[in-house]
Amino acid sequence: MNKQVAHPMVKLQRKVSSLIQSNIVKPEDNLSKIALLLGSDWKYWKNELIEFDFSLKDPIQELLLVEDWDED
């Protein structure tokens, strides 16, 4: 039995998707808006987003559109 572990960015996508479904943020809001909601984890996620060429001014929906997080 071979269990696959989700990429950390997939976990972030799930969190953010849940925030949207709960009407806490909107898909067109900037990524920076999730900073307060992620609290002490924000520093880590901010660095991850930047590594994947996201700007904190990008809309949240751009994060949710990514289907593959390969780090080639």
Core attributes:
mainly alpha; 4 helices; about 70 residues; about 45% helix
Short description:
By secondary structure, the chain is mostly helical. The protein has one domain (about 10-65).
Radius of gyration, Cα only, in angstroms? 12 Å
Proportion in helices: 40-55%
Q: What is the string of SSEs from the N terminus onward?
A: HHHH
Global morphology? globular
Q: Give me the count of strands.
A: 0
Number of helices: 4
Helical/strand content category? mainly alpha
Q: Please indicate the count of domains.
A: 1
Please outline the major beta sheet. none
Q: Ends: how far apart? A: 26 Å
Low-confidence stretches: none
What fraction of residues sit in β-strands? under 5%
Descriptive account of the structure:
This protein is an all-alpha fold and 72 residues long. It has one domain (8-65). Helix content is 47%, strand content 0%. The protein has helices at residues 8-21, 35-38, 42-51, 60-65. The longest helix is centred in the first third of the chain and has 14 residues, at 8-21.
Question: Layout of helices and strands, plus pairs?
Answer:
Elements: H1 8-21, H2 35-38, H3 42-51, H4 60-65
